[in-house]
Structures are given as structure tokens and as C-alpha cells.
């Protein structure tokens, strides 16, 4: 997200404070952060990769950078295709991630159970000052290859899709 490869049209939010735009929700954005219009408890920040599918491995967050606001904890929802959003879980329970404890530091959470998604939603649960969020999603492309894509494929299962992970953007340690 930081490099601008995800366009602002691929970012959706529950609401936006007029002075804290959704596009500012990118990690290291110097203008501030995304902040919702109100801290209602139903706020979220969403990134859509559609039509692409990504394997999400890490999630990094930052606070506002200019004001002493940040998200202390959050959970993650995701989906692929027409599926409904589902919560990211560890040990069969909604995983509450530790976020930030100040406005500047980047906190990176490595996922115990990486997931494939075309949509990822961050849902703040606790915050300091106001909800203020800058994020980065780390992972790589998932390439769906149909059997028809390869004439030499001897696989007799014409309905099966092979999924391949492209290592183009794996974070360090993978």
C-alpha cells in the first residue's frame, strides 16, 4: 500500500473525518492517518485486491503521526470472491491483535494462519484519543491456474484448480 500500488479506489472505510482521509491510511503517510468521522465502535478500514487474490502473511499498523491518536487493538476480517466476510481466528477464536502504543512506531503482527483473500478489513476495537490508522498488508500474489491453461497437464480432474503462490512480495523471513 505504501508504494501506491493499491489505488485509493481500492480502499473503502466505514466513514471518514473530513481532515483525515482514507488514502492517508497507508503506512508512513506523512499527512496523518485515516480517522473515521465518529468513533462509534463500528468503524473499519478495508482494502480490496479484486480481481487479484493475495496470501496475507503480516499486518503492520501505525498511529496518526501528527496527533497523539492510534489504535491499541484490532481484529481482521477477510473474504474471497462472493463469500461473506469472515473473522481471522487463532485457536478457533477471533484473534485480537495488539496494535500501537504511540503515534509513530510501526507494529507488525505475523499471522499464525496466513490466509488467501481478495478483500481484507481491519476493525479497531480499542484506541487512544481517536481511531487513527495507517496500515500495510504483507504477502504475495496467489495465481489461480485452470487445467486448460497448460496443454501438457495430464491431470484428469478438469474441475480442479491449481493454486500457486508467487514469491514476488514475500516479507523477510519467508
Automatic annotation (TrEMBL):
This is NAP1- protein 2. InterPro entries: FA58C (IPR000421), Galactose-bd-like_sf (IPR008979). Residues 148-174 are annotated as: Disordered. Residues 149-162 have a biased composition (Acidic residues). Residues 1-140 form the F5/8 type C domain. Pfam families: F5_F8_type_C (PF00754). It comes from Desmophyllum pertusum. It comes from the Eukaryota. CDD domains: FA58C. PANTHER family: F5_8 TYPE C DOMAIN-CONTAINING PROTEIN (PTHR24543:SF325), MULTICOPPER OXIDASE-RELATED (PTHR24543). Signal peptide: none annotated. SMART domains: FA58C.
